[in-house]
Design brief:
This protein has 461 residues and is α/β, with parallel strands linked by helices. The protein has helices spanning 16-24, 28-32, 119-159, 173-184, 239-261, 297-310, 333-343, 362-374, 392-403, 413-420, 422-428, 437-441, 451-459; strands spanning 4-12, 39-44, 53-60, 63-75, 79-86, 91-100, 106-115, 164-168, 188-193, 203-207, 212-213, 223-226, 269-275, 286-287, 318-324, 326-328, 356-357, 359-361, 380-384, 390-391, 433-434. It has two domains: 4-149, Alpha-D-Glucose-1,6-Bisphosphate, Chain A, domain 4; 161-459, Rossmann fold (3-Layer(aba) Sandwich). An eight-stranded mixed β-sheet has the order 11-10-9-8-12-13-15-19, sandwiched between helices. A seven-stranded antiparallel β-sheet has the order 1-7-6-5-4-3-2.
Length: 461
């Protein structure tokens, strides 16, 4: 049976060898795989080479579809192929070439040869959809690759080297994405994990509740990114749970700070998570980093966490409090929770919908953190939000529009309060209109300043 072929060409302002090397590193496959494809990387070599196996799983509703690829025909700096050994396609071969240009950059050529299951019937039913999906996937890959290469080059130009970064919270949505982003850029990443038998290289054990963290393996760090903390939205805020939410953040931050102080060569920068909940419920007031703290549990939690971070580490360490807004990703967080309802046409505003949502795309959040790693003028609180905050009604309407669904079923405030209690009042029915003043002053370029474009990129729409 005749194979179908898909090709994609692009030009990059980076040498072929540099682009090739990026593709060989851990995290590269994850970076190039859009979350909206629902493809997960289960297993791959730490550094990909000739004969390396790549195990993937695609989620289709409640089912999982297995794929196994092998990397072959590798020509260093110029070419490699990923060939399906097991999976849904009778034949699948992805040939990737990197062609040097006189300008110093390179031209990339991707060629996919594949057979669709069920022959001509499969081609008639799914051929057009598969080709359209491939176009969206490769446009996404091109955008990710070009921006990642630019950001990592800037880090090296400013710092004079690639970084060695300690990351906590690496199993969370933001932490996983950050580890892949840094590793694919050639930086050394050490993950602090709570398993006594780390499953992979580059992981060290710690137990913040018990005060356990060894200095072994932490010397020579350039930076620490502290994202660990119990999930705020994982259940009702009972008194015991609120105490755990506080302790999980403060205990871990203090332990890190005490350990860093004992290092012979401590890191230069400490990035610590916080949240725009610091500002409390402020209506339509436009807030920058100079804004006063608000009232409520979230505001108090953020204030305590930032105070603990400020005193962490040795004297002179640059501390940055990452005040995250709603980080948008279909792989987790608020957006992932909303998608099933909105896809069914059962979504709508929360309460009266007038509360503001300060949000940021996952990609902009990653690159903003990279800027905070090297930009010495960034210290203290930094708002990680897009410049395009919207009301909850606008958010619901835009998401429904992107998904081509109605947004006609609002969630009444009384029902949310009954179901979720105080968490509903502070997380769902309250909001703040936050501006990324420090990022803008530092020249940060948002890829997704507007909500609709961000959602279309993240959801493949």
């Amino acid at each position: 049976m005749e194979k179908d072929t898909f090709t994609f060409h692009s030009r990059l302002a980076f040498p072929a060898q540099e682009v090739f090397d990026w593709h060989m590193r851990p995290g590269a496959i994850e970076r190039l795989t859009p979350a909206w494809t629902r493809i997960e990387v289960n297993r791959r070599a730490r550094r990909l080479g000739e004969g390396s196996l790549i195990e993937l799983t695609t989620r289709i509703g409640p089912f999982k579809q297995h794929r196994l690829l092998e990397r072959l025909e590798l020509q260093p700096g110029r070419r490699f192929c990923d060939i399906q050994l097991e999976g849904p396609y009778p034949y699948w071969k992805h040939d990737q070439r990197f062609i040097p240009q006189d300008s110093g950059g390179c031209r990339t050529e991707d060629r996919l040869d594949y057979l669709i299951p069920y022959g001509r019937a499969g081609m008639r039913l799914a051929g057009g959809k598969i080709r359209k999906n491939l176009e969206l996937v490769f446009e996404y890959r091109q955008a990710i690759l070009a921006r990642d290469l630019e950001t990592h080059r800037r880090i090296v130009e400013i710092a004079g080297r690639r970084f060695k970064v300690l990351v906590t919270g690496s199993s969370g949505m933001i932490g996983r994405a950050l580890v892949n982003f840094l590793a694919s850029g050639g930086h050394t990443v050490i993950r602090l994990v709570r398993s006594r038998e780390p499953a992979s290289e580059g992981a060290l054990y710690w137990d913040p509740a018990a005060g356990v963290l060894s200095r072994a393996g932490l010397e020579g760090l350039d930076a620490v990114v502290h994202l660990a903390g119990e999930n705020i939205a994982a259940g009702r805020w009972t008194k015991k749970r609120m105490a755990r939410l506080i302790a999980s953040r403060l205990d871990s931050t203090r332990l890190l700070g005490e350990t860093l102080k004992k290092l012979a060569h401590p890191p230069e920068v400490f990035l610590c998570a916080s949240a725009c909940g610091y500002y409390g419920d402020r209506g339509a007031e436009i807030l920058d980093e100079e804004g006063d703290p608000g009232e409520g549990f979230l505001a108090g939690l953020a204030s305590q966490w930032e105070a603990a971070a400020a005193s962490a580490g040795p004297p002179g360490i640059r501390v940055v409090n990452l005040r995250f807004g709603m980080v948008l990703s279909p792989s987790g967080g608020a957006l992932a929770a909303l998608l099933p309802l909105f896809r069914l046409g059962a979504g709508g505003r929360l309460g009266n919908g007038k509360q503001y949502v300060s949000w940021i795309s996952m990609e902009d959040a990653l690159h903003a953190m990279a800027q905070a790693l090297v930009e010495k003028s960034l210290r203290g609180p930094v708002n990680l939000v897009s410049p395009g905050a919207v009301t909850n009604s606008e958010f619901a309407g835009t998401l429904a529009h992107v998904l081509k669904r109605p947004a006609l079923l609002p969630a009444p405030a009384p029902a949310l309060k009954i179901a979720l209690g105080r968490m509903a009042e502070e997380m769902l029915l309250s909001g703040c209109r936050v501006r990324p003043a420090k990022l803008e002053a530092g020249g940060f370029k948002f890829a997704h300043p507007e909500l609709e474009a961000a959602l279309r990129f993240l959801l493949g729409r």
